[in-house]
Amino acid sequence: MMLLPCPWCGPRTATEFRFVGEARPRPDPATATPEQWRHYLYVHANPCGWSTETWYHRAGCRRYLSVERHTLTHEIRAVRDAATGTTAEAAP
Amino acid sequence: MSLLPTPRRTRATDRADAERLPPRAGEVIDRRRTVGFRWNGTPYTGHPGDTIVSALAAAGERVFSRSYKYHRPRGLLTASYLDPGCVVQVGDEPNVRGAHRLLAEGMDVRSQNTWPSLRFDVRAVNGLASRFLATGFYYKTFIKPEVLWPAYEKVLRTFVHAGEVPPDSAPGVYDKRYAHPDVVVAGGGPAGMAAAVAAARSGATVMLVEEEHQLGGHLRWGGPAELARLAELRAQVAAEPAIEVLTDAVVGARFDDNGIPIVARGVPGIDERLVKARAGVLVVAPGLVERPYVFAGNDLPGVVLSTAVRRLVNLHAVRPGRRAVVLSANPEGDAAVGDLESAGVEVAEVVDARRGESVRAAHGRSGLRVVELGDGRRVEADLLVTAVGWTAPTSLLNQSGDRPVYEPRAARFVPDPTRMPENVLAAGGIVGDGDVDALVEHADAVGREAARRAGRSASAAVAVPALPVADHPELFSAGTGGFVDFSEDVSAKDITTAAAEGYDSVELVKRYTTATMGPAQGKLETVNTVAVLAAATGRTIAETGTTTWRPMWAPVTLGALAGRSHEPVRYSPMQPWHERHGAVPLIAGQWIRPEHYGDPAGEVTAVRTGVGIIDVTPLGKLDLRGPDVASLLDLLYVNRWSTLGVGKVRYGVMCAEDGVVMDDGVTGRLGEDHYLMSTTSSGAATVWEWVENWLQTAHPEWRVHVTPVTTAYASTNIAGPRSRELLGRLTDVDLDPERFGYMQVRTGRVAGVDGCVLWRIGFTGELSYEVHVPAGYGLHVWEQLMAAGADLGVRPFGVEAQRVLRLEKGHAIVGQDTDGLTQGFSAGLDGLIKLDKDDFVGLPELRWQRERDTAPRLVGLRPLDGMVVPPEASQILDRAGGIAGRVTSSRMSPTLGRSIGLAQLDRELAEVGTRVTIRLPDGRDVTAEVTSPVHVDPEGARLRV
Predict the structure, then answer these.
(1) Which domains does chain A have, with CATH numbers?
(2) Domain check: are B867 and B757 in the same one?
(3) Distance in Å, alpha carbon of B634 to nearest chain A alpha carbon
(4) Which of B425, B763, B796, B911 has minimal CB crowding within 10 Å?
(5) For B897, which DSSP code?
(6) What is the 8-class DSSP label of residue B941?
(7) In chain B, which residues have their Cβ closer than 8 Å to the Cβ of A37?
(8) Side by side, which strands form the sheet with B183-186?
(9) Nearest chain A residue (CA) to B657
(10) Do A18 and B689 touch (CB under 8 A)?
(11) Do B794 and B865 share a domain, yes or no?
């Protein structure tokens, strides 16, 4: 039930969003070994602490957001549009 | 000779108001009117404003339930929402709080789980219960032998203390509301009211939530000074339009960022409403809960709390007994003595705990008869009033991250102000003690500070005055036994036994004995449990600690959580026609669509021999525009798209990054930078999010704009050898096969409607055109097709015929012929997957799947006996009798006159011509031959006419 500050829509309840997952770089499909690729698919760091995640504002602006969230306290210190990098301060 | 009067046995009509007092200054009943109701079948009356139990008490009733395990008679204890002995069945609603629910005309109130009657409960006297239900009986009893579990269940069920929901219960009306007040105040006593007024005056919107039916808290049962103060505070609340008052409502919990569920009753026409509030600041002001005293016989009807007496006398004008003993350790207990005397109750003895006096035990059978004092004297009484202290109900603070600390001087837990988050404040008795002026002054400052923290006032931080806690003797247990948890029938002995058995942590004791796990959610029981455990283990209360106060504050009905049913249903614009023509509806996700029109086999034959039309509006559709659409399609589909020319359509399959087939569909290129993508009906929303995900997170530099147009178009597939002839009568698009070939797309006018998209594709295996028309004209175009094709014998066909047609053609359905583990090369896509592309989603996994070449294959199946149709999901056996696969699709083919199927089958058995054994659900085995998936027209000649 935490609030997530969407750069476009303002603070919204987390149920408006879909949690996509931890942001993880996609290995180069031409050179990735099975180990590297499955690490990308299945292994999550799941830290107790700060985590950079992707959230999708499904019931709002339908933008994918990059969110820095503390997994223990649910504190959120940075949210930006995943494509444009727009933050709440810069959004119109 | 007893000093107590013999209870009168009277006719029902005499029972009303037998114990009703003359009018009281603060009473909440309306004596001018009466309300009729039934109690265990007998008619009673009360007044508007009465609770169920106050009306029964006014009629002289003293026993309202039988206890959970031992079936002991139970009466009033708290006369409030929490009262564990007053849970009753009202009509078809079980577990109603009888000391809280207001009386209503015609209520059918019954005691719960008493057999044969409340007065004579067989299970209480036969001693069965205490033998079976020892401490930790969940873990000791009914474990072995396992064969007796059904019998144990039967025995336990007759003991379960709960009401019943008859199967023919009328459905209730529940709903939800969202609210965004600046401040939520939990508790409408003097502190809550003052805080709400101060916050509102500082510019905040306020939701003031009170569990009871009126604002006022303990002021309601006070003397003239308190009642005057109550009137003043209520007037102040009423004068603030920014305050919304919710009575008969509870703040259920405090979640992150002040997400606050409030369950409200008493909304007209609605049983319960769940208000999902998001508050700037939460002010926690629930007051204090009076704590029962633990001693032998403390659950007898007639043993009550001082606040219960004060409520009964002053709010409901009910005389709670005839002859009372009062055990008092505080001024509120002393005030109860005054109330009793004013109500004409003989106060036989005041036992002052502050002078070291005590009560040892209460004696009686179905009610209190004798009180045994600490000095050994025995006093006849039908009422024993205890005032031994208070519990701070700190749930909402604990849920906010606070860790209240035990203050032995005051004999209660107090909040730790250093651990409260910024957006939570506390006011009133939960913080400290004082007269009304002190509570109001403190709460006023809290309210102003709440408005400031909610951003509604620009003032500097408000200095909140201290509210010190008053000294109070520590008084928990007389050490003579008795009950710690009335709801769960947990005795002091159960706690000490648990400690002796090694369960010496409070969290373990809670789970082992179930103490604090009943409907009062620990507010009456937790501190006594901790105190008895502390005594048993030789530790202090602070060292012992408390259990976790979890949501919800009070039990919540499933109806309140579920709310109204908001299940969206989607229909195509052609639905009225389908309904008029006998379509059998099929629920497909959110869509309701025709399964068939009465004769699916005939519909198949019509398509194979003439022409049929099917409503395919639910197909997902995405309009894609921009110079980089081809790059996007190349990334998301396993096949190649950069080579698709304008005017062409292509079938594509999407896999996820693990190579598992995700969705499929046809995409057409309408213009240089303009494409129309179709998806499966159920995948429409998922694919849209998938496309946006890749565009926004992986390739924000691509210029592609995506618009979902699923319901902007109504879609009809016209299929069959005569489909060209039919469509040609209604369109200006040139259908000549030389100029509009297989897998091409055109735009134009159909039945007078401009802006239609025509795809020449072949899911059914026949010559066919899929026509997407602006949705508002869907019904018109459908009706025109039916009219124009009458002489051609055009027939509508449904999803069932389409499934058969595509099965005859060997086209897989994602999610039916594949599952959550089916990678691309197991879905018959060998020719489609372009492993030589630089990249696409899932490429590495598909490359490795191909290299391993061990995965199951999608194959065709034909039972040797063509009349046997193996049910879908039938297992296919390998030669050793193990499972080698399963039938994924299976039908009788009207075209071939025999059964056909598709199957997922182990690699070793997947060669065409192999004979396999299918085990039917009834255990019979049939033999089938593996074939190509394409059963009809493998060359595709029928498509290219």
Answers:
(1) 3-81 (3.30.2270.10)
(2) no
(3) 14
(4) B911
(5) T
(6) G
(7) 844-845
(8) B243-246, B206-209, B183-186, B281-284, B424-426
(9) A41
(10) yes
(11) no
